[in-house]
Amino acid sequence: MCILLSSTEHPDYPFILLSNRDEFFRRPTEPADFRDTEDGKVKILAPLDLARPEHGTWIGAATDGKLAVLLNFREENYSESYSEISRGIIPLDYLKSGDISVDEWVKNLETSISKERGVDPKEEYPLRKVGGFTLMYGNLSLESNGKISHLNILSNRGDRGKVHVPIDSDVALLDADIGHKTTFGLSNSLYSNPWPKVNLGEELLSKAIKYSIVRRENLQELVTSCFEVLSTDTLSQEMASDKTQDFTAKMMELKKSIFIPPVESGFEIAIGSNPTIGRYYGTRTQTVIVLDKEGELHYFEKNIQTSDVLTEGEVEVKHFHFPIRKNK
């Protein structure tokens, strides 16, 4: 039950993004780092999911300004969430797409997935065969007014759309109320039908940014506030540790809390050699991305849990940063 929160409200930081990855702690994952691309023109900063052979990701940024964040769509039947091909290849495909337009990238996406699968490129691999997802993606290069243009939404369970579109923009929108929002949230539902945790997250992030502006907080203070928003836990501890309650029923409750503490899955017997499930499920990775007005992108990552052996105490925050080019 991951969550993404983003904002363009801060005058000194044109774009701020918060992300919680909620997943089984046992699922093998490589922390964020810079990755080379085949042509060597850009580097990609992203963690990798090692549980699937494709080694995809759920979040990443490229040195040319591209950003991609993917959230799974919550299927009614949990068993349907495992797809024939990992949806984690989609963010990486966009981040490696070079100078083509977003429309051209979407048009070529199914062919690109076919190549990844090793099948005849003439036989496009349909997105419907990929597990349900929503992708927020676009370029964070600053416009001449010091702001980003907008970001895009792509889902194989709902409509495409745009978010963070300036109110004076002539960009066509399917839903202007959502498209013009300065603070936006998304979880594992359609972006037009947000869960309670998303509404709470948007409210808390907006308040944190307003407070940051009044207090003239520096970058580190702002990032600390963002991690506090991501750590908002409203889940019943009794429910989380209850081994008798069905895991699917527990998942329904996770729609309400931004942060998910370790939840007993009840899958101990079923684990076997399957690396995608485990004893505990919850928030395991937190990411904060901040773009400053000079075009420097800052990427902060916390890996809270990395296995079914739970850890407590202070968690190291990794900080990466790099400049991205401005649009002329």
TrEMBL record:
Record field: transmembrane: none
GO cellular component: Golgi apparatus
Pfam families: TANGO2
GO biological process: Golgi organization; protein secretion
InterPro entries: TANGO2 (IPR008551)
Protein name, as recorded: DUF833-domain-containing protein
Source organism: [Candida] railenensis
